[in-house]
Structures are given as structure tokens and as C-alpha cells.
Amino acid sequence: MEEHKIPGSLARIIFNSVEEQIGKNGLNMFLKKAGLEEYIDTPPPDDDTPTLPMGKFKKAIGLVTDLFGEKAARPLLLRWGRLTFKYALENKPTLFGLAGIVTKFMSGEGKTRFILKRVLKESETLYDVPHILTEDDQYFHIEIKNCFYCGDLTSENCICWPPVGFWEAMMEWISDQNHEVKEIECMAQGADSCKFIISKNPIPP
């Protein structure tokens, strides 16, 4: 069976984030180390074409943390997540199921639930890994099985920052307020899956 591939547009976003941080020459070094030399002169297509095999995508994410260290990689990968949401919303609203959403008459919590279910369903299709949504009175809980954001790394910390940045930007778009978005268990720490929480209530100003 052929390995699952992610759209070229998503690969471009992470490559652009790396270039913003370390420049064109730094990006070229990054691509060589990640085994992605073919994209040095020919960037991935800026569309939904399945382009980058998941194995290479996972290696590239892990390499960001390896190259920069966790402290420096965190803001870069958070920004990548936020850029992914912004790009999807403005240019590819169908990518994460954001097109044609009608939530005018929904409550804040109901709107979040509706959009989150849709986004997670599309994420499963894009990345070919399960995204499971549950909730309690205070939080939405998201579990990603076979998570690729850790990049096969080991750490004492939770290090899956791209989805945190994505959901932070999503919650700001939904409510015009900041919500707590946090990874609470990570496969890099030895957990069976990666788990996240999103607060239902905004962070007090």
C-alpha cells in the first residue's frame, strides 16, 4: 500500500515558517537534512495535491525540534499551526471543513463543538490518523492516536506545538477571545497517544 501523503499546501507552510526563522540558506540545509532536497529548487504545489509522504513529514517536524532545541522550536511550530489555520480559512476553507459553516444561531459552546467536530474529521482525512473528541463541563478533550507531531522524539515535556497553535487561532476566530489550549499527555513522554484540552470558557482578561 502506498504511503499516505499530505497536501503540498501544508508542506509549504512549514517550509515557509522555517525560512522566516533561519533564512533561505538555512531552509536549504533543513531540507537536505530532512531528505527533502527535491524541494530546494521546486517548492511543493500550493494546492491540495497529495505530495509529501507522512514519514518524511513526520521526520521534518522532528528535525525542527532537533535543530533548534525545544525552547526555540516551540514558537516556530506554534506559529506554523497558527499559519495553517489562517491559510486554510483565507485560501483553502474546504481543507479543514471551514467552508460554508453557518453558526449564526449557535451558542458559543455549540459553535465550538460544531466547528471542532468538522475540523477534526477533516484532519483525520488529511493526516490519516484518528482524532477523537470528548468533553466535560470545562474542557473539550482531543486525543490523537499514532500522533506524528512528536516526530519520534523523546522528551520530558509535551512537544506537539503545531495543533496547539492551530486550535488557539481557531478559538480566537470563533469567539474573538483567547482560550486555554494545552497538550496534557504526549507520546514523546512515553504516553500511548497525545492528548489536548481546549477550555470552553475564555481566559479572563
Terminal-residue CA separation? 51 Å
Report mean pLDDT, rounded to a whole number: 88
Provide the succession of SSEs: EHEHHEEHEE
What would the principal axes of the Cα set say about the shape? Answer: globular
Q: Pick out the low-confidence regions.
A: none
- Which structural class should the secondary elements be placed in? alpha+beta
Tell me roughly what share of residues is in helical segments.
40-55%
What's the number of helices? 4
User: Largest sheet, described in full?
Assistant: 4 strands, antiparallel
Total strands: the figure is 6
Taking all Cα atoms into account, the compactness measure Rg is: 17 Å
**Strand order in the sheet with the most strands:** 3-4-6-5
What share of residues are in beta strands?
5-15%
Looking at this protein, list some descriptive labels.
205 residues; alpha+beta; four-stranded antiparallel beta sheet; two-stranded antiparallel sheet; 4 helices; globular
Question: Mind explaining what this structure looks like?
Answer:
- Helix 1 packs across helix 2.
- The relative contact order is 0.13.
- The protein is 48% helix and 14% strand.
- It starts with a strand and ends in a 6-residue tail after the last strand.
- It is α+β, with helices and mostly antiparallel strands.
- It has four helices and six strands, in the order E-H-E-H-H-E-E-H-E-E.
- The chain has a four-stranded antiparallel beta sheet with strand order 3-4-6-5, with helices on one face. It has a two-stranded antiparallel sheet with strand order 1-2.
- The longest helix has 37 residues.
